[in-house]
Amino acid sequence: MGTFADFHRQSIEAPEAFWAEQAKGIHWHRPFDQVLQYDQPPFARWFVGGQTNICYNAVDRHVDARGDQAALIFVSTETDTETVYTFKQLHQEVQRMAAVLRAQGVGKGDRVLIYMPMIPEAAFAMLACVRIGAIHSVVFGGFASVSLASRIDDCEPKAIVSADAGSRAGKVVPYKHLLDEAIKLSSNKPNSVIMVDRGLAAWPRTEGRDVDYASACAALTDAQVPCEWVDATHPSYILYTSGTTGKPKGVQRDTGGYAVALNASIQHIYMGQPGETYFSTSDIGWVVGHSYIIYAPLLAGMATIMYEGVPIRPDPAIWWSLVEKYKVSVMFSAPTAVRVLKKYDSSFIKKHDLSSLKALFLAGEPLDEPTANWIADELGRPIIDNYWQTETGWPILSICNGVEPKAAKFGSPGLPVYGYNVKLVDDATGEELHEPNRKGVLAIEGPLPPGCMQTVWRNDERFLSSYWRSVPNRLIYSTSDWAVRDEDGYYFILGRTDDVINVAGHRLGTREIEESISSHAAVAEVAVVGVADQLKGQVAMAFAVLKDASLAETADGARVLEGQIMKVVDEQLGAVARPARVRFVTLLPKTRSGKLLRRAIQAVCEGRDPGDLTTIDDPSALRQIQDLMGA
Ligand code: PRX
């Protein structure tokens, strides 16, 4: 084992040699001719000329060596189901799903939208898509019809795979009517909707379009669908994420680079070994679910646990009982989940044998020190923070104990991971900040390493303008996060530079929430900001101006309207985007040129000094918010 500093230096100074070495970890149908093509910055093309298949690497290649070992462990505490699929069985299930997709005319390059709860068929569908070279677009099951419709419009799926319902904390959440509504709203109509019927909810059928998965599968027990060898640069999937504008961005991922980067990350960052079990508590609708429930563990020959349910049902010991039962060696969760567990008596952790666990990784939002200390004490295992984004697909900052054991510092996700040439830059001048403890924008010098986004789906211009041109005077990738670096090179994340908020580790765009609230007939104007919250990290807070202010004059009137507006957000975007409160004002704080002063609103909500207000048009607007929040 060398030092991490050497490892990182090699990855930056000689990226081609470095990544050629990492690429040996996956199977290539055709070897690549060139490790990196970077003649049109910032568009990086990794492993050019190579052909491979992610499904082959995640499933087929393990069938001989570990066919009878667990691959996918499905646990639902919602339906009381526990099913273990071996690599052999997973291989078969994926081929059945692939055969059903094929029968619906889905082929290489076609998009398939997956709108599903955390059930095995969702994993089969993702793997089946990459098996046949189709491009999946998983939409988080908690999103509702308008969120779904904008994604259908943008990626134009030929087929959609869905299910009758999900279930959360014992409550059935039907999916199909939301999906039907979304299809109605969108200008693109899929040819077919493949429905997994869990028997949880009745669903309306559209003849000629809706296909019952079980019936379609009935004749396909031994379906054989060979892997489609695709170019390393062939898109594997699109995953939408929120940005500054109301319209989510379709993060497009490649095939070869992603397989190489994820496979390598299991060894260098997560310290997993083939045959061990990985347990990520995320959801397949988010990037952590894509990379660390489905692809990375399977690529590395590990079993992966897919968990449907909440962390405290039937009791707060459930996750730890799974760690004991399946001898989980690597666990991945979010600080919010730990904060939820922290409210319960910790004897629930102590009663389980957690000796298999090497470390608990946490990501997605800032890890506060009390939470980190509590879980470290309870588990007696290293707690490893890691910082990254949907766009990168795997960690930008962490400590890489698989390369060299290093101490973590509380409050810091760690050091730049190999492959990432991380810089801190001044947001006004674009200049690099070399001295320690200066606040700047966390940026990455191109080329982005393998596994990161190739572009925004069908929108290179947006890729450039959103990510590469926001720092003045230089072409550099902006994470849109503020950060500082200490004298030892550890980074500390200080929050977003844009209008994205992070609620319980879920990334949401305040503009999307504003658009949804504005669609309520009574609303003239609205501002949504993220406000610090003890449990969820942040919550959304909305301040609306009504067309007729008298509607909210009484407490009852305001309460009714607030409820109606929340319902609109629930129905359009999903409960995940629902603001914690909707308050009514007669004026929003703006600059004289009409720009909303979101930072000032946020500061007032958090009881901080709103800062420089010399440009504010009417100071009474901010006072209204101050009064409401103080009340
Ligand atoms: O603001 C940062 C925050 O979450 C954003 C990315 O969210 P998402 O695209 O959903 O990807 C999550 C992948 C883990 C970042 O821009 N964030 C993510 N991880 C951390 C974090 N903030 C602080 N500490 C982290 N470890």
Ordered list of secondary-structure elements with their pairings:
Blueprint: H1 4-13, H2 15-22, E1 34-40, E2 43-48, E3 51-52, H3 54-66, E4 70-76, E5 81-86, H4 87-103, E6 111-115, H5 120-132, E7 135-138, H6 145-155, E8 159-163, E9 165-168, E10 171-174, H7 176-185, E11 192-196, E12 210-212, H8 213-217, E13 230-231, E14 237-241, E15 249-253, H9 256-268, E16 277-280, H10 287-299, E17 303-308, H11 318-325, E18 328-333, H12 335-341, H13 347-350, E19 359-363, H14 369-379, E20 383-386, E21 397-398, E22 415-416, E23 421-425, E24 440-445, E25 455-456, H15 460-468, E26 477-485, E27 491-496, E28 500-503, E29 506-509, H16 510-518, E30 523-533, E31 537-546, H17 555-572, E32 581-585, H18 598-605, H19 620-630
Parallel strand pairs: 4-17, 6-7, 6-8, 7-14, 8-11, 11-12, 16-17, 16-18, 18-19, 19-20, 31-32
Antiparallel strand pairs: 1-2, 3-13, 4-5, 9-10, 14-15, 15-25, 21-22, 23-24, 24-26, 26-27, 28-29, 30-31
Helix pairs in contact: 1-2, 3-4, 3-5, 3-10, 4-5, 6-7, 9-10, 18-19
Adenosine-5'-monophosphate-propyl ester binds near residues 241, 493 and 507.
